[in-house]
Amino acid sequence: MSTALDEAAFTDQFEQLRRPLHAHCYRLAGNVADADDLVQDTFLRAWQSIATFEGRASLRTWLYRIATNAYLDRRKAAARRSIPAGDPFEWCTELGPYPDQLRDDPPSGLAASETVELALIAALRYLPPRQRAAFVLRDVSGWTPAEIAGALDVDVTAANSLVQRARDTIRRKAPADVLAWRRPELTAEDRAVLRRYAAAVDPADFRQLLADDVRITMPPDPPVTGIDAAAEFLGRPLDWRTFPTAANGRPALVGYLRSAGQDHYEAMVVDVLRVEHGRIVESNAFVGAHHVAAFGMPATLPGDELAPSVEPGELPAAKMPPSPL
């Protein structure tokens, strides 16, 4: 690569790298809205520094370094020093789903598209920001300790220490087998369960789909556990419109709710399901219109809008935010 980039070449190459860069920002931030902001911030910082790009590292490496430091600057500004205890699915309101339409698709190895699995993204919440950045750069993006040291402005010994401490925590909090982070395309069984889940209307319908020890999480509210409590919770007489999709490699449902007296439905929640042996063992509910927006869906629907009969993943394609320049 040449040692300088003109503005047109930079913009073109940035767009080519936007999807993997967005996934990197999601792993750091844990939700799509913050990942969007980090990508925009990265573009602006890089745009303002084009003249300093000397080509000694690839443009991708340069952009990842900028994005990582943008993330660390934000965490420093937020002054969050402590890591709450307990399951992040139960307390972390910053955690959010990642639409399958946005996943990057590297050719081989521990594919970056497979490391947006919720088990890993949740485990990363246990890490302080610098450890999280070091782990993602080393064990997801494959950076060397020297490259991480340069990105984080520490020596190699400190970089190795950050990675090792992060790995120790991840081993305790994430699936023991790194292959467990991976998730294949949705199976026919996943799709069938999701269709039945979307069509269910009362507790009896839901009981047929749930495992005995099912758990529903929806921070900041407490979880609902057990088939009896979950069936009653899901079967409440509410006016929902739901749309099947896929997130983090799992079946998911986008939900709109119409309250009494309203003439429209409001974007409310994205439910990401974990299905084992044809039963739902966990539903991670992410409440908020911003999570729905990440799937390319509107904030409201007219009252006469019917949920379409579509297969998971056939929602309007989620789009990356445009470059600000």
Write the layout of secondary structure elements.
Layout: H1 7-29, H2 32-48, H3 59-78, H4 88-91, H5 118-124, H6 129-140, H7 145-152, H8 156-173, H9 188-199, H10 203-207, E1 210-218, E2 221-225, H11 227-234, E3 239-247, E4 250-258, E5 264-276, E6 279-287, H12 289-293, E7 300-302
Helix pairs in contact: 1-2, 1-3, 2-3, 6-8, 7-8
Describe this structure as you would to a colleague.
The chain is an alpha+beta fold and 325 residues long. It folds into two domains: 7-181, PhyR, sigma-like (SL) domain (Butyryl-CoA Dehydrogenase, subunit A, domain 3, Up-down Bundle); 188-302, Roll (Nuclear Transport Factor 2, Chain: A). The protein is 43% helix and 18% strand. It is built from twelve helices and seven strands. The protein has helices spanning 7-29, 32-48, 59-78, 88-91, 118-124, 129-140, 145-152, 156-173, 188-199, 203-207, 227-234, 289-293; strands at residues 210-218, 221-225, 239-247, 250-258, 264-276, 279-287, 300-302. Strands 1, 2, 3, 4, 5, 6 and 7 form a seven-stranded mixed β-sheet that branches. Strand 5 and strand 6 (279-287) form a beta hairpin. Helix 1 (7-29) packs across helix 3 (59-78) and helix 2 crosses helix 3.
